Every structure is written in C-alpha cells, then in structure tokens.
Amino acid sequence: xxxxxxxxxxxxxxxxxxxxxxAHGELPLQIRLWNGRDYRFSAAPTVTITLPSPHAVSYFRxxxxxxxxxxxxxxxxxxxxxxxSVFEVAVALAGRLVSGNKLWGRLAARxxxxxxxxxxxxxxxxxxxxxxxxxxxxDEQMVYSCAYFERGDEGLxxxxxxxxxxxxxxxxxxxxxxxxDIGCGWGALVLRAATKFGAHAxxxxxxxxxxxxxxxxxxxxxxxxxxxxxLCDYRDVTGTYDKxxxxxxxxxxxxxxxxxxxxxxxxxxxxxxxxxNHGITTTDVDNGSGAFFGGxxxxxxxxxxxxxxxxxxxxxxxxxxxxxxxxxxxxxxxxYARTLEFWTExxxxxxxxxxxxxxxxxxxxxxxxxxxxxxxFANDWVSIYQLLGCRAGAIxxxxxxxxxxxxxxx
Length: 410
What we know:
Helix content is 42%, strand content 17%. By secondary structure, the chain is of the alpha/beta class. The protein folds into 2 domains: 2-96, Nonspecific Lipid-transfer Protein, Chain A, CATH 3.30.1050; 116-407, Rossmann fold. The chain has a 7-stranded mixed β-sheet, with helices on both faces. Belongs to the CFA/CMAS family.
C-alpha cells in the first residue's frame, strides 16, 4: 500500500513536470511509465524513455545531464533512439526547465590533490577496461584522441595517421632525435616517430593495459632499438629530450598542478627543442568544472575521475609562466566532434560484442559519454588545442621557420 501511495504521489508530481516541459514547446520525446501511462511531447517522437518503477520519477524532478545520465547508467530508465537525438532531448530537458540549472557549474576546485597513487588509480579506472573493448570502436592504430581531418572527408583510420604526422611535423622531428611522449596510450605516436621519422622515441603511461600492448607492438615492429614505453608518472621522468609531445594527457593533471606539469616539461626539454601539448579545454573562462548542465559532474563520477579542464587562457598562462614560449596555437574542436561521431557510430555498430566484454553499467557509461562528448564539442561547450612551444628567451631557442608553411608539407 505504501508503494502504491508513493507511486501515485510521484505520478502527480510527474504530471506537473510534463506540463512544464510541454509549455516550452515540442520535443521529439515519448515517456512510458511502469503503469502503462504514455506521454508524448510531439507528434512523431524519435526518442523513447521508459521508467520501469516509481523510483525513476525522482531523477526528473530537477533534471540535469548528471541526474539523467545517472538514471540511465544505473539502469533506472531505458532509452531507445538514435544517440544524437537522445542527447538533444537530454540537453533540452536540462536546459528549458526553471530548475536552477546553469550552463556552467561551480568554479573548479583548485585544491584537488593529484598524488601519484590517485592519478594512477584514475587513469587505470578509465583505460584498463580492456584492450579488446577499445579496439572495437577506435581506429586500427587505437589512437584515443582527436583525429585530424585535413580535407574533411577522410575516414577515421586515415585521419588518425594524419594527426600523428601533423604533430610530429609540427615539432620538426628529425632522424636520431630523442622524443618523449607523455601519456602515450597504446604507443601509436612513438611507433610512428620511430618507423617513419627515424627518431628515438620514449612513451610513458600509467595504464598497465596500454603498457603491455604498446610493448608488444614495438616488438612486432622490430624497433626495440629506438622505441620504448615506460610505466611511470610524468613527475618521475628524467633526462633531456629534443622534442616532447603530450596528447590527451594534461586533462588528468589538475588545475592546481598545471604550473608544475609545464615546469617539468621545461626541465626535460633541451635548448632549441620543441614541445607540443594537445589537450581538451573548457570554454568557460572561469574554468568551470560542472560544465554544460551538470555534464562535467557526470564525467567526473563515471568516466574520468579527478579530471579537470582549464580554459585556453589558463593553459597558455601556466605554460608561459613555466618558461615556455607559446609559438603556435591551433584549435581542433571541429575535428574532435567528427572523431567522436566516428567513435559513436562504431560503438553502436559493435554494441552486441561490447556487451559481452563489459557489464551493462559500463556499456551504458561509455555509450552516453561518447554521444555527450560529440555534442559538447559540436556545440563549443568544450574545445581542444594544440599548443606548440619552446624554451623562452633568446631568438636561437626557437628553431621554427619564420612561416608556418613547414607544418603543411605538400
């Protein structure tokens, strides 16, 4: 009897909520309740949300991308429909109601501690799901970062190879030079540096799965004499390098540690060397961590624990304060939106196989995460930049030509 009363109370609240949503215009949405009730928000809905129990109603009282994402991930609701449409509906629900939601959340907590053990745990949580899991929806080289669509019509495999070459060309990598790749993933960039550019390449990662596969690939390519991967923290790297790259890694550093991160890079870079930092940024000038209607909170809880995104201005400031001259900045935001479209399509196409590798919760996490990130990059909620730098000081410390044309060889 108590359950019936709670259910009825929830339904009354839900009816009022439905009226609020409808007052703001049509949505391509249909909601089905456990008791057979059916609510349509347009004549031809493309997205159906099913609430299997009265408890699920609570997630809709003050909807945000965090609460709606939690409801889906925890199995409290089921969702059917094309992923782009699903996220469009979620954004509309989170943004149109007077529920205290804001596009940007609270100011990011700069006091977060990023110890070696915590960073290692966070990285392993995300990347050590399984190599086979990532292999199903990434490109052939398993490059888990923004691709580079030079013409715009490339397939994912070609665009990822172009991204590797674009980075290595920007840093003017030469045969025999020493390259350090901070956060090397499964080794695609260091392998490219060794096999095509003839460099002596070292990659580092905190992921045991990435480390094992990268080592295997290096052996299979027969370049052990000039290519290696280490399982270590960037703070523990020693030596001096001609060129340094960091792709999709500084998002894990933490806002409070950006200065130390770039200072470490500075200490490892020789005079006349080049560094390229390829990383995701927030478009909130206050470095908001709860960005896009609570989407940042969802990612922090389920996808990238302890990740923090700086605004471009903060990244440039900290890079400059560490003694590195920023000599080139390139936005790849549209490229990442396209990359995520490919990843989402491949994830959906391999859904049945993926569900045999991971439990339902992890399947749902990655499904909504990929679709959400595609939306975020497409709508300029987040961005991504390549920052090219050298040691600051005399003219001779900058080895690049006077023109940027060297970056785009014919």
